[in-house]
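Margin note: ligand = glycine.
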Amino acid sequence: MSRLGSAIPDDSIAIAGAGIIGLSIAWKLSQRGWRVTVFDKGEIGREASWAGAGMLSLGGEVDQPSRFATLAVESRRQYPSFIRELESVSDRVIDYQECGALDLAYSADELVRLEVRAVAQTRLGIESRAVTTKQIQTFWPRVGSEDLAGGRFFPADAIVDPRDVTAALQRACARAGAKLLPKCAVLAATVTKDEVEVQAESGEERFQAMVIAAGAWSSSIPIAGIPPIPAAEPVRGHLVGFRQPEQTCNTILRHAHTYLLQRANGLLIAGASVERVGFDRLINPEIVAWLASEAGRVLPHLNETAPAEAWIGFRPGSSDLQIGSWHSRRLFLAYGHFRNGILLAPITASLVTDDINANLRTR
Ligand code: GLY
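Resulting structure:
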């Protein structure tokens, strides 16, 4: 049903995308009095946010000064209060573990690379300490020690279950008055000086502003009235999950491009491939086997079992992190988080909310 004839509702914001980024922004905007409608082409939180392992891992992801590094450090700082507040307003428990991470080196060269990297990370405020092979054997007795040269422990790395976060955000948004419209894609939008006209599967509606937070799909929404927004692209990742007794792996374990972590419910996750294959959803058994063997290198007892699950997700790739207004005070971008959408959700929500308030009103 078209509503284009009616007045633009005051303080109305449309968000395209109901993943962890869109929902976090919707929650924060609703708390500040905005009337938010979140559109999603599919189910709430069922794409990259559902697939993500949920590493909050400065130690694994950040080593050079950049805007991303600054935002990642700040978002990690905000995480404990973000989770506390979200649990409180949603009455849901979130699996959030301040478990630290252990980077493993299986050669002298790998150990030197870890040490050099740690020097650069210390300058960014990311602390770590050297751990000897003997210490690893003592405190992480399940870790494979053949050819082990040593490691580094990152005490501030943590994990969160992104599915818990999106479920809590969904309830927090609803309680704060946001309207969530799953299975309701934004088909097109037009940005003018005074409004944004949104054509969605539910009909046409006018809003004061719009946020594009549709992850890897962000640039597939045709938007008239402004220069094209930066391209988004899917970067597929496979992950596997092993059913294991709780506390089998009570720290994030990393080696080269592989990471392992365990949810509170026992699911031990190993990830991840990085593939530029478009939106191909087929699970590749060869990649699953490769991930399982990488996991078995780090935790050899996993060689005796097969993964119970394998899944894929489409990381939101782009040339850069796209956060902020785009050629208009009515269009805001929030995508391009690539490997770190879960980590960057709190800071993205704060930045976009502040930006919208600064551009459109003071609250
Ligand atoms: N955040 C880790 C990954 O994208 O695989």
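The pocket of glycine is lined by residues 53, 55, 237, 271-272, 315, 339 (CB under 6 Å).
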